[in-house]
UniProtKB/TrEMBL annotation:
It comes from the Eukaryota. Keywords: Receptor. Residues 18-215 form the Peptidase M28 domain. It holds the Pfam family Peptidase_M28. GO terms for molecular function: carboxypeptidase activity. InterPro entries: Peptidase_M28, Peptidase_M28B. Belongs to the peptidase M28 family. M28B subfamily. This is Transferrin receptor dimerization domain protein. The lineage of its organism: Eukaryota, Metazoa, Ecdysozoa, Nematoda, Chromadorea.
């Protein structure tokens, strides 16, 4: 039996347009913290991407009204043609490669809401501490979550996504390539983070994803039923994180967390692949890489000994649970601020 299918397609060349806005910094206006979302949709797109697009627009509006200025510039980017292969953000990255490589502090992506249970963050290790601190500042929009011990976004995040390797922290995987952070992270190496909201005990995304049922009714009556409380909390988290990156005296990269992740997770995982090759000379390279990561973690803490500003106990507790291998050094400092573990990057041109 033979079945014949006839497909009629219409091909058309169209121009795409990215929409970019700025809030210029007063100290380093040529350094950028970039907030990005795509605004093209397969169908009506009430959730993907309009939940994220509406949040980005409101964040930009509110920031212009409330935040007079930050040390570094905030860039608000609405990308076109994401659904066709991340075209808008990729073209932007390729056109401004040199400038972004030298000037981009971080790229913070929010594609769309995918659930309503808890925030879900994918981040490179150097931004993870700041994401945690930002989540601690935002009230949990789900007042009905009686099983959550605490009232913040962080509390719900920790409850539903506990890291199996460290139960004091939520699990934060590295970003995947499914949205506009891909080109910034993989092509340029810009520290990148992408976040959404998900239902961790159900589907990874909502069942009506990319269908004709993505209407305002879905968003208002099924996804975010409490007067768009999750939209509001998402906006608050996004700008809290952005201002932290834009206004800190030194760029708050968590180099210590990066080194610890390399040492305790990424390099051991890599070893599994390397050892399967059964090549004797790979062991020396693996051992050298592991030693470099360990030395970097220790160096970051040693720098802290001379630069601590006696921060809050909360920040110290984060560092303590992130640094099980460096407890002796931690004991030498009464309190260690997360942002001091960045290696104190200097604000130098370039």
């Amino acid at each position: 039996m033979t079945t014949t299918i006839t497909i009629n397609g219409h091909f058309e060349v169209k121009q795409i347009r990215n929409v970019i806005g700025y809030l210029y910094g007063n100290e380093e206006p040529d350094r950028y913290v970039i907030l990005g979302n795509h605004y093209d949709a397969w169908t009506y797109g009430a959730l993907d991407p309009n939940s994220g697009t509406s949040i980005l627009a409101e964040v930009a509006r509110a920031t212009m009204q409330v935040v007079n200025e930050t040390a570094r510039s905030l860039m608000f980017a609405a990308w076109d043609a994401e659904e066709y292969g991340l075209l808008g953000s990729t073209e932007f990255v390729e056109e401004f490669t040199e400038l972004l490589t030298r000037r981009a502090v971080a790229y913070l992506n929010m594609d769309c809401l995918q659930g309503n249970q808890t925030i879900f963050v994918e981040s490179v290790p150097s931004l993870q501490d700041q994401a945690i601190l930002a989540a601690m500042k935002i009230q949990n929009p789900r007042k009905d979550q009686k099983d959550v011990n605490g009232t913040t976004v962080f509390d719900a995040w920790l409850h539903y996504m506990k890291d199996p390797r460290n139960p004091n922290l939520p699990q934060i995987p590295t970003p995947s390539g499914g949205s506009d952070q891909k080109s910034f992270m993989e092509y340029l190496g810009v520290p990148s983070l992408s976040f959404s909201w998900m239902d961790m005990d159900k589907h990874k995304t909502y069942p009506l994803y990319h269908t004709l049922y993505e209407t305002p009714f879905l968003s208002e009556h099924l996804m975010d039923v409490d007067n768009f409380a999750i939209h509001r909390a998402t906006a608050q988290f996004w700008i809290e994180l952005a201002v932290r990156m834009a206004d800190a005296p030194t760029v708050p990269y968590s180099l210590h967390t990066l080194a610890m992740k390399l040492e305790s997770e990424y390099i051991p995982d890599l070893a599994t692949s390397i050892t399967s090759l059964n090549m004797t000379y790979t062991k020396d390279g693996y051992d050298q890489l592991l030693q470099m990561a360990t030395s970097c973690a220790v160096s970051a803490l040693m720098i802290t000994l001379f630069c601590s500003n006696r921060p809050s106990t909360t920040d110290y507790e984060i560092i303590e649970c992130m640094s099980p291998g460096c407890s002796v050094l931690i004991a030498l400092v009464e309190r260690i601020p997360v942002w001091e573990l960045t290696g104190h990057l200097r604000r130098e041109d370039g």
